[in-house]
Amino acid sequence: MPELKRLYDSMIENMGVPDLVIPFTAVKFYRGEDEIPEAVLKHRPSDISLTSCQAAKQAALGDMICLTRENIGCVAAAITFGLVSKDEKMPLSGPRVYTDIMKEQSGEGVEFTPPTPSEFSEGIVYACKHSQREDFALFGKDDAGRYRDTETAKRAVSEMSAIEPADTKAVFFYPAEFDELEVEPDVVVMSVRPVELTRLIQAYQYNTGKRVNASMGGLRVVNSDLIVRPLLTGEINVSTYCLGARLIAQYEGDRMGIGMPHKDFLAIVQGMKDSRTGFPFHMYPGADEDNY
Asked: 262-274 and 194-208 helices cross at what angle (nearest 10)?
């Protein structure tokens, strides 16, 4: 049994609710001179693009997905992960899930030119109404955009965690059951109901005494809030899911995300075991309801 699966099973067992399932995704970055194992590369989608939130959700369902510059479906996530530079002035080639929505609603067909990474960074895409770029809208000509103006959008983008300089070659999403290779994740992401989040925080605090400070925004939640922020800060983060996660990846209405470095996942697993008799999770209202 893979070590990650053993740890996940221990966490669930010590929560004390039979058949409880918490969707779980492990994330590994390959950057700079890192060698990408063939067991990872073979899971690169070649005929479709996937957003980071789609990849995270599919990994929780048992799939392995390796995202690269060539197949990532969201330009914003490509910037966050360091797969592309935020200042690039040329659109990413080929179809992409996120910008294909723009293309369809624009009515421009083959004449449509996708936004560049720099147009995301400069706030033009997210303030499409203010910047008079209706072709970058997602919901037709009346789309108000994601922010009221480019200044507000740039401020929001500046506070979104991202890997800089852009030296990432691949981001691997995989389930706890992955056994083709022993890979220690950089970050672990779980999709939780509030009642489960309660118990995870209690388990983390039991041995550490540390509070969890949540930083969240309305966009780039899976890639920035839940993956890259924990990677860069070394701390747990909690966030609601964003527009893309809700509408493209179809995350359920009763779920939110918690992302953490591998070391903090280990702390939660140990804390869950050590504190089992102090926090009767099975008695929490809703703890034993059908989930996921």
From this structure: 90
